[in-house]
Amino acid sequence: MAGVALQPSRARYFAYGAVSILLGLTQGLGFNLINNNLPWIQGSLGAYSNEAAWLATAYTATNATIALLAIKFRFQYGLRLFADIGLGLFIVVALAHLFTDDLRSAIAVRAAAGVAATALSTLALLYMINAVPEAKRPMGIALGVGWSQLAAPLSRLVSSDLLQIGQWHGLYLLEIGLSLLCLAAVNLMPLPPIPRVKMFQARDFLTFALFAPGVALLCAVLSQGRFVWWFNAPWLGWSLVAAIILLSASVLLELHREKPLLHVRWLTTSDMLRLAVIILLFRIVLSEQGVGALGFLQAMGVNNDQMRGLSWVMCWATLAGVIGVAVTINPARVSTPALIALLLIAAAAWSDSRLTSLTRPEQMYVSQGLIAFASALFLPAAMLAGFSRAMRQGQEFIVSFAVIFGAGQSLGALAGSAFLGTLLTIRQRAYTSQIVEHLTLADPQVVARLQQYAGVYAGTVSDAAIRQAEGVALLAQVVTREATALAYGDVFRVIAVLSLLVFFYLLAVRLREDARTRRANALIPAKAV
Questions:
Q1: What pTM was estimated for this model as a whole?
Q2: Cα–Cα distance between 121 and 485 in angstroms, integer?
């Protein structure tokens, strides 16, 4: 009888776990399929690089802000209804976009996808928490937030086939199909009901009306700055000023509320500020993979098909990290995975700093495997650290933590791209100038190289002057390629140093907290006596 009674429980755990994986992968693929293929999508849309960047900006802006209302919506109306609304909105907008080919409709789809992703990531976490026994909730949290990280390498494995089948529409077709599966799964396997509590107040929407556009403007500044250049576009400065005003107004409004939507005083405590800073810095150093290594390979002319081996390495390393941190994570020592991750990132970035223009994916298997493993270690640890603090304060504080966690992740990723992209541009220009200074026609090697490049066109171009001009153009391409490789080396060295600085900062915080705990424990017997 006992064995018969256990079977439904195991089946339920397995079903919840399967739904969690589906939701997590859908959320991750929805973000990475588009971001990893922006060069191909912008060509199909006839857009420039800075215009295509608005696709990522729209997704990030809605994803970083909708959590402000999503958690309260879950407590008051149930998260499944929010998931139905979010997924339904995305499916309708994406289907409409399949019949259009303009950038504006694509941006609208990405904004809707950001709303749906908030529901998907929350549901993936809740389903995984319910897929494990109560005693293993930390494991459920680690796995719930980890599934979406597998989507980054998986998106590169499947995107080439999807682009061949339906060009950029193929990417949206996969997103729509997965969203339909998620919609069916959350309705066929609903989570256990929770008591519903009236959460919304009228002034919540005023806070959201100030907070959401403030974050959106900040996202726009971070994503567009390196494309239009920071000091050449006045609208960047005005947008930043407007963002500061809107966010400051939302903070002032919340400080004078009896039941605030954002618990600003709690968020500005030393513990929460440290957590926010660590999340932000971690997202910046984790840009080593997306902006750094993968960006370098694309700049060297390597496409997704040629990176399949690297993508598989990253996929298996991420899976190992997700499972490893889930099995070993200790709620009392959540900083340990983060410290290990920072050392791995520093070692991998320093290894990548020795790259050349001849470096190919095979030479980056070890370093990028370490980065993928490290990225899987950090996110569950940060989630568990903040979630436990919020639960100790009360369930209404979960909204505040969700906002700072989501905004920190999103803005950190954009800040990482902006910082590394700007550094790359500055160093690339400097190296180009240095190389060009040494290229003179008085140097026999330069003359010989120009003749060699011009000879490439000897069979097709009869005019000697045109052949010479083509040879100069080829030499300029080589200069740009070498300058780019040298600039990426500097970027990786900066990431390695920054990772070590964050490591020592986090280690100092850990040692100070341990010392405080030991002093507190030492005082307990004395007080008892």
A1: 0.81
A2: 36
